[in-house]
Structure formats: C-alpha cells, structure tokens
From TrEMBL:
Quaternary structure, from the entry: Homodimer.
Protein name: Acetylornithine aminotransferase
Xref: CDD domains: OAT_like (cd00610)
Cofactor(s) the protein needs: pyridoxal 5'-phosphate
Encoding gene per record: argD
Subcellular location: Cytoplasm
Cofactor binding note of this UniProt entry: Binds 1 pyridoxal phosphate per subunit.
UniProt similarity note: Belongs to the class-III pyridoxal-phosphate-dependent aminotransferase family. ArgD subfamily.
Length: 396
C-alpha cells in the first residue's frame, strides 16, 4: 500500500497518530484514543479545542459572508481593531493570515517610518540568537538561524544578528546610523522558551528612545494571555513597543495574525504601501472578536496566572526528582518547559506513548504550551505522566 503522506512536501516528520476531534485540552485519534494536549498546536489553541463560543461565531459567520477582500470595509475587522487599540499601546492594526506576515508588516512599517522621516539609510533590524520570526525570506533573515537560511540564496542585507545578552554589542549596534529597530520576542519560543529579564526589556526601550530607533516585539507565541498578561511585555512598566506582531493565540486555531503600531508608525503606511487579499476577512474576524473578548478579560488573565503557578510548581518538583536529567525549569506563564541535560526529542515520544502531547524547542528544551483554559486537575495529569516518562526515559 502506498504511503498516504507521499505527496506532502516532507518538511515535517509527524508521528503516526491522526487526530480527528478535540474537546477542551483533549485530542482524540480516529480510533478514539484520548490525549492530553499540552502543546495546543504550538500555543495556538488558547481556548482549547472546540470552544463553543468560537464554534458558534464561525458557524454564524459561515452562513452569512466569507470574504469580500479589503476592497471593502469589514465590520468585524473594525470592531476587533477598536478593541485591540482600547486594550493595548496600539493605535493602528493591520490584519494578516499568519505570524510571518505580521512580522513582514512590522519590518516594512519600521523602515517606512524612518524613510518618511527623511532617514532612508535606517534599514537595519537588530535581532538576537535563538530568535524565531517565521519562514518567509524576510523572516528567516530576521531570525538568523543558519539552519533555516541554508540553501535559500544570499543573506538579505538589513539585518544585524547579535548574541543574546551581549549588551556591549547591542549598544554599539543601536548607535549605528543605519539602524532602524530592535526586534525581540519578550519570551523566545522556538529558540528555547527563554524569557528576557524584565530589566532588559526596560533597558531596550530606553536604548531605542536614546537613539531614535523603534522597538518591535514579536509576541506571536508569548502574547494573547500566554504569560498571564494580555501581552508579555505588560509585565514591565514603561516597556511598551512601537510595533508588535501577534498571531497564534489571537485566532485560537483560525489562522490569522495582526501587526499593531502606534500612530507615529502606522500613519506612514498609506494606500498602496501594503496589503493582503485575505487579511482580516469576515471568518477570521468573527472568531477573533470572540477570542479577544474572552482573553482580554482581567479575571480570565488572573486565572491563567494562578494555574501557571501550579504548573511551574509541578515542573519544579519534577526537576527536583530527576536532577540527573532535568537542568532547569524555563519560560514564563504557560509558555514553559524543562531544559534537559540531553536532547529531549525521544522524551517527547515517551510522553506521547503515555497520551500526553508536548513540544520541543531549541537548546534541549521540552516545551509546554497548553491551552490557557486548563485546570489544576489537567496540570496534575500532565505532571504525573511527565514524572513517569522521565523515570522511564533513557537519553540517547
Ligand atoms: C510561530 C511564530 C512565528 C511565525 O508564525 P506563522 O503563523 O507560523 O507564520 C513568528 N514568530 C514567532 C515568535 C512564532 O512563534
């Protein structure tokens, strides 16, 4: 029999399981086996699977209108942009279909801002090791990961890649007359679930102000309530960005993203300067409004902070009971994980064999990004499975 995957471009290597249905934090295979989902489509299913309010919103919209393109006004997009600007630093929003496109819009907006202000030499975007910003040519050049650049032609000019934590290099680069912006994830996802210390975010804001350059946050993974604040940078006073990229959790499973800017930046993106056929289409916006209403609620966020503390506690005791295998607990809120002493890829498999789905990230990290709606009971279920998996696991 032929392999049913034979015509899929082989850029992923998924396990055998095929999931058919989801409910809250659980996924079910075609044969009905239940798995606890502690990776949530890589921090996407923020409200779990099949959330009734999201299902209703999508069904209701599907029966009315799917798409008109941005040639016409989209009521849902106007409403969601109002909410976003009410609840965040932002004054302007551009809706996209993915995180990568939010990143592209952010880079273009930063360069356009300087160009419009007569500083067209300011094109360089400063990024850091361990960054991940997506897979377009712009995004892989921003991310700077050599594995993702290999084979795809010359590196693009306009990106300066610095060692994470090298303050001297950062100060020197920020002072260059060609610098446009500093671009960071407040909590790195793919690069190893690594939170930037609060003092550093504040320091970045001050450094950018000092040199008249822009601060861009990639909160595609760490935003939308994942750390217990609506956006992760909100843990730090006085560290608001000029531009922010959101996606993943913002659609809760419906693919869309957003690039948020201040008025000073957004005002220069005039008709013709940017666009998207689907961005902010009625289906995405119907779901997006529901997700935003739920996640932006302060009581919801307080509960995320509470359950995060339970999970962190559970992970710390796992680290204590398996000191030979676990090096540290890492991340922030519900974007967290265990930094391991060896590559955790096979540990991920052992967890899956025990019906727990987890991820991995750079730097030997076993990554957890459960739905934000988990309870203490789900945390207990997950940590019990991880405890058994850690005991059984033999690192390669
Ligand atoms: C996933 C991710 C992206 C890319 O988003 P896509 O929706 O896959 O295009 C960009 N930045 C960060 C931090 C991400 O985690």
């Amino acid at each position: 029999m032929s392999d049913p995957r034979q015509h899929i471009m082989p850029v992923y290597r998924p396990p055998e399981e095929v999931f058919e249905k989801g409910e809250g934090p659980y996924l079910f295979t075609e044969s009905g086996t239940r798995y606890l989902d502690f990776i949530a489509g890589i921090a996407v299913n923020a409200l779990g699977h099949s959330h009734p309010a999201m299902v209703d919103a999508l069904k209701g919209q599907a029966e009315k209108l799917w798409h008109t393109s941005n040639m016409f006004r989209v009521r849902g997009a106007e409403e969601l942009a109002d909410k976003i600007c009410r609840d965040t630093f932002a004054d302007r929003v551009f809706f996209t279909n993915s995180g990568t496109e939010a990143v592209e819009c952010a880079i273009k907006s930063a360069r356009k801002y300087h160009w419009a202000n007569g500083n067209e030499e300011r094109i360089d975007i400063i990024t850091f090791t361990g960054a991940f910003h997506g897979r377009s040519l712009g995004a892989i050049n921003a991310g700077g990961n050599p594995n993702y650049l290999q084979g795809f032609g010359p590196k693009l000019p306009g990106f300066v890649h610095l060692e994470w934590g090298d303050h001297d290099a950062l100060k020197a680069a920020a002072a260059q007359p060609t610098t446009a912006a500093v671009f960071v994830e407040p909590v790195q996802g793919e690069g190893g679930v690594r939170a930037m210390p609060d003092a550093c975010l504040k320091g970045l804001r001050e450094l950018c102000d000092e040199h008249g350059i822009l601060l861009i946050y990639d909160e595609v993974q760490c935003g939308m309530g994942r750390t217990g604040k609506l956006f992760a940078h909100e843990w730090v006073d006085g560290a608001a960005p000029d531009i922010l990229c959101s996606a993943k959790g913002i659609g809760g499973g419906f693919p869309f993203g957003a690039c948020l800017t201040t008025e000073t930046v957004g005002e220069h993106m005039q008709p013709g300067s940017h666009g998207s056929t689907y961005g902010g289409n009625p289906l995405a916006m119907a779901v997006g409004n529901v997700v935003w209403d739920i996640i932006s609620d302060e009581d919801f966020l307080a509960e995320v902070r509470r359950v995060s503390a339970t999970l962190t506690q559970g992970l710390k005791s796992l680290a204590d009971s398996h000191p030979d295998k676990v090096e540290a607990v890492t991340g922030k809120g519900l974007l967290t994980g265990l930094k391991m002493k060896a590559n955790p890829k096979s540990l991920q498999g052992v967890c899956r064999d025990k019906n727990l789905l987890v991820g991995v990230a750079g730097n030997n990290v076993l990554r957890l990004a459960p739905p934000l709606v988990i309870t203490d009971e789900h945390v207990r279920e997950a940590t019990n499975i991880m405890d058994a998996a850690l005991s059984e696991w033999v690192p390669e």
